[in-house]
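User: I'll paste a sequence; please echo it back and then give the predicted structure.

Assistant: Echoing your sequence first, then the prediction.
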Amino acid sequence: MLGRATVVVEDVATALREAGDVVLAIAESRLTAADLVPMRDVLTGDVAPPTDRPLVFKSVGMSWQDLVVAAAVVRCSEG
Protein backbone atom coordinates (compact mmCIF):
# COMPACT_ATOMS: atom_id res chain seq x y z
CA MET A 1 0.00 0.00 0.00
CA LEU A 2 2.67 2.56 0.95
CA GLY A 3 4.51 2.08 -2.31
CA ARG A 4 1.61 3.42 -4.35
CA ALA A 5 0.61 6.17 -1.91
CA THR A 6 1.74 9.65 -1.08
CA VAL A 7 3.07 9.18 2.45
CA VAL A 8 2.89 12.23 4.70
CA VAL A 9 4.91 12.01 7.92
CA GLU A 10 5.33 14.28 10.91
CA ASP A 11 9.09 14.31 10.42
CA VAL A 12 11.13 12.27 7.95
CA ALA A 13 13.99 11.46 10.34
CA THR A 14 11.56 10.35 13.05
CA ALA A 15 9.58 8.21 10.62
CA LEU A 16 12.79 6.54 9.45
CA ARG A 17 13.61 5.67 13.08
CA GLU A 18 10.20 4.81 14.50
CA ALA A 19 7.63 4.00 11.78
CA GLY A 20 8.10 0.30 11.21
CA ASP A 21 5.84 0.03 8.18
CA VAL A 22 7.66 2.92 6.49
CA VAL A 23 11.06 1.38 7.28
CA LEU A 24 9.85 -1.98 5.94
CA ALA A 25 8.51 -0.44 2.72
CA ILE A 26 11.88 1.25 2.17
CA ALA A 27 13.77 -1.97 2.91
CA GLU A 28 11.57 -3.74 0.32
CA SER A 29 12.27 -0.96 -2.24
CA ARG A 30 8.59 -0.04 -2.42
CA LEU A 31 9.32 3.47 -1.13
CA THR A 32 12.34 5.70 -0.63
CA ALA A 33 13.09 8.22 2.08
CA ALA A 34 12.87 10.93 -0.59
CA ASP A 35 9.25 9.88 -1.26
CA LEU A 36 8.20 10.85 2.26
CA VAL A 37 6.42 14.20 2.47
CA PRO A 38 6.88 16.19 5.68
CA MET A 39 3.55 17.26 7.17
CA ARG A 40 4.91 20.81 7.41
CA ASP A 41 5.19 20.98 3.60
CA VAL A 42 1.56 19.97 3.13
CA LEU A 43 0.24 22.35 5.79
CA THR A 44 2.21 25.32 4.46
CA GLY A 45 1.16 24.60 0.88
CA ASP A 46 4.70 23.89 -0.32
CA VAL A 47 3.53 20.44 -1.46
CA ALA A 48 0.08 19.58 -2.75
CA PRO A 49 -0.47 15.84 -2.49
CA PRO A 50 -1.54 14.33 -5.82
CA THR A 51 -5.20 13.38 -6.02
CA ASP A 52 -4.68 10.38 -8.28
CA ARG A 53 -3.21 8.10 -5.62
CA PRO A 54 -3.92 7.16 -2.00
CA LEU A 55 -2.87 9.63 0.70
CA VAL A 56 -1.43 8.09 3.86
CA PHE A 57 -0.61 10.04 7.00
CA LYS A 58 1.89 8.05 9.06
CA SER A 59 2.44 9.23 12.59
CA VAL A 60 4.44 7.98 15.51
CA GLY A 61 2.80 10.31 18.03
CA MET A 62 -0.25 10.13 20.25
CA SER A 63 -3.46 8.96 18.57
CA TRP A 64 -5.61 11.99 19.50
CA GLN A 65 -2.95 14.26 18.01
CA ASP A 66 -2.82 12.06 14.93
CA LEU A 67 -6.54 12.51 14.34
CA VAL A 68 -6.32 16.31 14.49
CA VAL A 69 -3.26 16.42 12.25
CA ALA A 70 -4.66 13.92 9.74
CA ALA A 71 -7.83 15.98 9.43
CA ALA A 72 -5.74 19.08 8.73
CA VAL A 73 -3.73 17.23 6.08
CA VAL A 74 -6.94 16.11 4.37
CA ARG A 75 -8.37 19.63 4.45
CA CYS A 76 -5.18 21.04 2.94
CA SER A 77 -5.06 18.39 0.23
CA GLU A 78 -8.65 19.12 -0.83
CA GLY A 79 -7.77 22.58 -1.89
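The CA atoms of residues 59 and 66 lie 6 Å apart. The two ends are 24 Å apart (CA to CA).
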